[in-house]
Write a structure and sequence with these properties.
alpha/beta; Oxidized Rhodanese, domain 1; 2 domains; five-stranded parallel sheet; four-stranded parallel sheet; Rhodanese-like_dom_sf; signal; Rhodanese-like_dom
Length: 313
């Protein structure tokens, strides 16, 4: 399958174009370190530092520690969305409020790490937050820009929220089953590296290797230049639509193993390319493979055993 190269021009104009795709957004879906630094005083965003480690050693001044795990499921189904009351309680402890902009900051040391920020962004958007941004390149990019970190922890004042989940950007297992069985139509996009798509590798928590029948492989890494950890802010939308066969009105479902890499594809297609009706399947293949649903690219028992011996996990 031919790879498309997406322009990574980091001009202000490119970021401004992205901003028009996010309604009522202070920075747009992506913000550079310089833009965030310049807007801290005037915009007063809530900065969520989602790193599991590193916050105490240094974080953006005013940032709140909000580890990625707060937005994820248990080890046997990591992609699962936490119960709404649990999410609401977490948001309240973090001092979140719907009328302030939120900037999500991951470590940004690998292109895979961007998926954490994208997954948190998707979770917040689905919970009713509208003014959302991701610091492109994360804390690493902030440091590379020469900006200082603080070691003073922030204890937010608790808030009270009443949130509802908007299913506009969510595909669950029953919905995916309907697509696979031909009872509903959607373009299925597998965001995993090709060996996972081909069934040569599988996640430790997955029951079976393989992919969804009819799925196309669009590895999340295609949205990054080689070696880059910041996503390309400007995409060739026409090329993307042609590559995936997207027509106006089509539903698109992005999936991976646990809804992490798929969040990057969802973010690129929905928030950067501005394509309508793009959904994330949070449980993805770990959840789906545990059902009796049909799968494609599933090797036989001997081939699968040999794949795992070669490091398939």
């Amino acid at each position: 399958m031919r790879r498309f190269a997406f322009s990574i021009g980091a001009s202000f104009a490119a970021y401004a174009a992205c901003a028009t795709l996010a309604m009522a957004s202070s920075f747009g879906p992506l913000v550079t370190p310089s833009q965030l630094k310049a807007g801290l005083a005037s915009t007063a965003p809530i900065i969520l530092d989602i790193r599991a480690k590193g916050y105490d050693a240094g974080h953006i001044e005013g940032a709140i520690s909000a580890p990625y795990g707060l937005f994820r499921g248990p080890s046997n189904d990591p992609g699962q969305v936490p119960a709404l009351d649990k999410l609401e309680a977490s948001y309240e402890r973090l001092g979140l409020t719907l009328d302030r902009p939120v900037v999500v900051v991951s470590q940004g040391d690998t292109d895979s790490d961007f998926g954490a920020a994208a997954r948190v962004y998707w979770t917040l958007k689905s919970s009713g937050f509208k003014d959302l941004s991701i610091l492109n390149g994360g804390a690493s990019n902030w440091a590379n820009a020469g900006f200082a970190f603080s070691t003073t922890p922030v204890t937010p004042a608790p808030t009270q929220l009443s949130i509802q989940w908007n299913n506009a950007w969510t595909a669950d297992t029953p919905a995916v089953n309907q697509i696979v069985e031909g009872q509903a139509k959607a373009i299925l996009v597998d965001a995993r590296p090709t060996p996972f798509f081909e069934g040569k590798k599988m996640h430790d928590a997955a029951a079976r290797p393989g992919t969804l029948p009819g799925a196309q492989n669009l590895p999340y890494s295609q949205f990054f230049s080689p070696g880059a950890t910041a996503i390309a802010p400007k995409l060739d939308v026409t090329a993307l639509k042609v590559k995936l066969g997207i027509q106006d009105g089509d539903e698109v479902v992005s999936f991976c193993n646990t809804g992490h890499w798929a969040a990057t594809d969802w973010f690129a297609l929905s928030e950067l390319a501005g394509i309508d009706n793009v959904k994330l399947y949070p449980g993805s293949m770990v959840e789906y493979s545990a059902t009796d649903g049909e799968m494609a690219n599933t090797p036989g028992l001997i081939a699968n055993f040999l794949n795992q011996l070669r490091g398939g996990n």
